Amino acid sequence: MLEVKNLISGYGKSEVIRGISLEVKEGQIVTIIGPNGAGKTTFFRTVFGFLPARQGEILFENEDLTKYAPTVRVQKGIAMVPQGRNVFPFLTVLENLKLGAYTRYDQKTLQEGIDLAYGLFPVLKERKSQQAGTLSGGEQQMLVIARALMSRPKFLMLDEPSLGIAPFLIKEIFRTIKAINEEQKMTIFLVEQNAPVALRVAEWGYVMEGGQIHMSGSAQELLNDDRVKGAYLGKKD
Ligand SMILES: Nc1ncnc2c1ncn2[C@@H]1O[C@H](COP(=O)(O)OP(=O)(O)O)[C@@H](O)[C@H]1O
Ligand SMILES: [Mg+2]
């Protein structure tokens, strides 16, 4: 579904993404794990179009996206939840959700999106009239995921959904990510520093270090790999 070939990008004089090629197959959950500073966010920003590709190709359903603005990529069916769960703090939960539908604003689609969001994350329904800034970190993460789904994507990119969130909410969020994949038939591309959590939910994984892919394999293979265990999973895992 997504095929990236020899991608290079960066900021100013610094080249952060140094020739990445990878693939995300339709229907799967695919993850990129790697340490802080590896370039995961920079890579995602380039795939989504916030940052230009300096070289290489980003093929989505066999069409090269590199010339398109992010809004066009959204119309093609891609949604991204950036790192850092940016809600509009002074708007209510419901108003935040509605803003996610700016590309699809007919009443019926809007209502379906809201129903889906409340079904996936019941707490958002309970808090629909509450200002988003008053939600806990985990609830805000649920809100930004639900907001991204309002554009009805077929391909959902999530940048570090577990970052800074209480462990019990991480579990709930990842259960829901799996449910979105299975029930909505949505392809999910997930970046995580929290490798154990990501590899347990994904089918396929890549290890990124220094702006390059160092390893790839089924999530099960990576979970059992001694190098991955040593670097990312902790000794006893
Ligand atoms: N806006 C920016 N301008 C310049 N350098 C940046 C910017 N954002 C990130 N970087 C640099 O790019 C590298 C990769 O960062 P990032 O993509 O955020 O990694 P990760 O998401 O894997 O932690 C780091 O060296 C970081 O300092
Ligand atoms: Mg990051």
Number of helices: 10
How large, in whole angstroms, is the Cα Rg? Answer: 17 Å
> Could you say which overall geometry the principal axes of the C-alpha atoms support?
globular
Number of strands: 10
What's the average pLDDT? 94
| Whole-number count of domains | 2
What's the story with the biggest beta sheet?
Answer: 6 strands, mixed
Report the CATH superfamily of the largest domain: P-loop containing nucleotide triphosphate hydrolases
Distance between the termini: 32 Å
**CATH topological fold name of the largest domain:** Rossmann fold
Write down the secondary-structure element order. EEEHEEHEHHHHEHEHEEHH
Structural class: alpha/beta
Outline the fold blueprint.
Layout: E1 2-11, E2 14-24, E3 29-33, H1 40-48, E4 55-60, E5 63-64, H2 70-75, E6 78-81, H3 93-99, H4 107-120, H5 122-126, H6 137-149, E7 155-159, H7 167-183, E8 187-192, H8 195-201, E9 204-209, E10 212-218, H9 219-224, H10 226-233
Parallel strand pairs: 3-8, 3-9, 6-7, 7-8
Antiparallel strand pairs: 1-2, 1-4, 4-5, 9-10
Helix pairs in contact: 3-6, 4-6
Magnesium ion is lined by residues 40-41, 83, 159-160.
